[in-house]
Amino acid sequence: MLSLSLSLSLSTPPLQRWDESKPEHDGENTHTHTHTHTGRNRARAVKCSRFGVKHRDTGSARTVDMGLSLKSWVTNEGGKHCVLVVWVGVSVWLFWRTFMLYCNGAQYYYLHNMLGLGLCVSRASASVLNLNCSLVLLPMCRSILTILRGQTQVSSRKVRRLLDKSKTFHVACGVAICVFSVIHVSAHLVNAVNFSVRFSDEFPDLNVAHYRGQDPRVLILTTVPGITGVLLVLILFLMFTASSHSIRVCSYEIFWYTHNLFILFYIILMLHVLGGMLKYQTNVEAHPPGCILANRMPPTNLTAEEEKRAESAKSSPTVCGEEAKFQAHFPQSWLWVSAPLCLYCAERVYRYVRGSIPVTVVSVTRHPCDVIEVCMLKSGFKPRPGQYILLNCPSVSSFENHAFTLTACPTQNKDTFGIHIRVLGDWTKCFSQLLLPEAEYSEVLPMMRQQRYPKLYVDGPFGSPSEEVFHYEVSVCVAGGIGVTPFACILHTLLDDWCRYKLQRLYFVWVCRELECFYWFAELLCSLYCKLWKENRPDFLNIRLYLTSTHRPQNLTEEKYRPLSSRLLIGRPRWKLLFQEIGKANKHKKVGVFCCGPKSISRELHKLCNSFSSSTTVFEYNKESFS
């Protein structure tokens, strides 16, 4: 296997001259091309083989310190960690404040004497649950987040980068709900035991048990808070277990259906707080905690702890003006979740109305490696490059919506938009069979067969990190396999019009296991190459195609793909050298790094963006969520 590393800027002989008097490593021309060298330049620069080019080691070039860089780390991680600190801080403060209120509050004196620490922990965890049950809905308001992302006058780049972490925040809130639910349930199990063991004859209004020693399981299974609590725990368990990565990949339907149980979860949550089991004292001034009620017979059958408190009360000079009065708490959970829940419901209604009109399928194309391209038309549909849609096909499943990144957006020249779908799971297999029941490779079904297509509904578009590609002067787009789809839409847009964007240079890196995968967008890359060549912008696009499979000699042999054949490399990218090269060629700039592909590539790029240390170049990492 040959280890290949090659710079693939779109330079051509008529547009770029090679000055032999200049050093070989100069700016962006750190590497050289196979199709532009002759004579001494070829001998000096490359060593040819039947597969492509083997470049000599560039490690002798000046390297950049790749240790942990505080500046780079703050740029990439500072914002989300600040939000994390604020979120954790608010949760801790809310827990501690509620804990101390129920521990030391005069209105909870008698209830605390009965239940002890379990009361404080159960109420403190409930307050954190209220907070997170309200926050967990906000990241799922996709249309609102998309509108905020599009308002560049309102939201800065840092704010938009934080909005891209909405899914991570949703997951964090979900984990917090599960953790504090365990704490809440455990504390209430202790409370159920204490309600039975510490049955109060002196203050019967506080009792939940009907008599001393009643089975705590009866209290749980015969009360509204107990029954609804069991149902809430069951729903949370199903949602949490079905959210694992393995289930989402192997059986997305299970994840989808169990996650929609959140509607039932919030309905039961509203019922859960209506039980009125925990009561507070309403007449603290007239009946100070621990006071002696005049002309009252001392209670009998007291426990040792109650006798101790009674003896302590006798030594107190305070005399009660009246008996203690207790009242159930006014439900507070709905105060927390009502606004986010109404906001989410309003958005869902808006999305339902917007997505209720079926789209028109213009054409369907089957590509190599089990990929189909669907070209559609919808009136008033105006997405931005890099956005994604939710596709629904009732013929496959009426309730399932699957996210697909747009690979082509409507432009001034055409009104259609397209997506590429990798056939992997059950849903995509059924969907592809409905669209192309017996189609051959590269067969396009024209509009005259439109009546044979199933009805399709599109919800969206929704914002994604890939939209930020145009907001940098220099962007690096790294794709792995089908992860190229967000960047295909970017390339389509550049093919139509790039002048109105801030972007001045684009590095496009595409890593695939099979050669046939490059045919998905080979024509697009060649068309953009020719456009930039004619417009005398050879340095705008830098293409690198990496083929990781080395089982047999492979190349793009077709004549129309000749511009790409010299840009096809065998082996895996050398990311560190690539970052060093880009950093040298783009000094005093912020470089946007965008990744959509396997986790191994994403982790490596994320690490390099955080560790790249340079006083002039900063790499900002943006990851496309592709799960």
From TrEMBL:
Cellular compartments per GO CC: endoplasmic reticulum membrane; focal adhesion; NADPH oxidase complex; nucleus; perinuclear region of cytoplasm
Source organism, top-level taxon: Eukaryota
GO biological process assignments: defense response; superoxide anion generation
Key words of the record: Cell junction, Cell membrane, Cytoplasm, Disulfide bond, Endoplasmic reticulum, Glycoprotein, Membrane, NADP, Nucleus, Oxidoreductase, Transmembrane, Transmembrane helix
Biased composition (Basic and acidic residues): 17-31
Domain FAD-binding FR-type: 354-468
UniProt membrane topology term: Multi-pass membrane protein
Pfam families linked: FAD_binding_8, Ferric_reduct, NAD_binding_6
Role, per record: NADPH oxidase that catalyzes predominantly the reduction of oxygen to H2O2. Can also catalyze to a smaller extent, the reduction of oxygen to superoxide. May function as an oxygen sensor regulating the KCNK3/TASK-1 potassium channel and HIF1A activity. May regulate insulin signaling cascade. May play a role in apoptosis, bone resorption and lipolysaccharide-mediated activation of NFKB. May produce superoxide in the nucleus and play a role in regulating gene expression upon cell stimulation.
Name of this chain's protein: NADPH oxidase 4
Organism (species): Ictalurus punctatus (Channel catfish)
